[in-house]
Each structure stands twice: as C-alpha cells, then as structure tokens.
TrEMBL record:
Keywords: Lipoyl. The modification N6-lipoyllysine is found at residue 63. Residues 22-103 form the Lipoyl-binding domain. Coiled coil: none annotated. One of its GO terms (cellular component) is cytosol. This is Glycine cleavage system H protein. CDD domains: GCS_H. GO terms for biological process: glycine decarboxylation via glycine cleavage system; protein lipoylation. Belongs to the GcvH family. The glycine cleavage system catalyzes the degradation of glycine. The H protein shuttles the methylamine group of glycine from the P protein to the T protein. InterPro entries: 2-oxoA_DH_lipoyl-BS, Biotin_lipoyl, GCV_H, GCV_H/Fam206, GCV_H_sub, Single_hybrid_motif. Transmembrane segments: none annotated.
Amino acid sequence: MDFPNDRKYTSSHEWVKAEGDVLVIGITETAQDQLGDLVFVGDVNPGTALSKGDTAGVVESVKAASDIYAPVDGEIVAFNEALNDQPDLINQAAFDTWIFKIKPNNPADADGLLDAAAYEELVNAG
C-alpha cells in the first residue's frame, strides 16, 4: 500500500495535511480497511478547542466504532458535512476524503508526526 508523502500520519491512523494555516484530518486507508463499511462519521464540533490526543469525533462501521483523535493542540474549524449523508466516501477514497479541519495552536507541532515511511513501518509491524 502506498501512503501519500504530502502529509503526516499518527499512530492512531489519522492522516494530517497542511492547507494554509489549518490542518486537514482524515483516516488512513489502513483504518478504513480495518473498520469496514462506514455507516456514520460525526460528533465533530467546530469551535471546540482540543489538546493533542483528545477525541475529535467518531467513525462507526457495521462492525466497530472508533474515535478520531486530534493530532495537535488546536481548535476544530470545520467538519466535512458531506459525510452526514455519505460516510462511505471514506471507504471509496480515504486519502481524498477529509473529516475535519483544525487550526493548530502551534503549526510546527505537525512536524513531530510520522512521515509516510515511518507510518508504513508502523502498519507493517502490525
């Protein structure tokens, strides 16, 4: 599996892509493979201030539910409303479908996340 090099990754299987002064967050192909067919994505509340590791939202599939975590300290500024009606967009294209955007308190915090090679090692280690 190829992991895009234009973003960072977390050990909890979120991808993080810088877009101006915000970070765009989604879940990886690996995460959506493990979850299966998604039936709900939400509980993301724009305006909420989070610390790194706080629960930012949830994804639910026919077989499991999983929290989505904030990769850095910051404030949620947007939720992908299309996921209300089409959570399976993530199943179709996990790396092209964002879940939420966060304005980091310190943009440099994203530099400490995993790069594609380190994330691939993590996934392959099981």
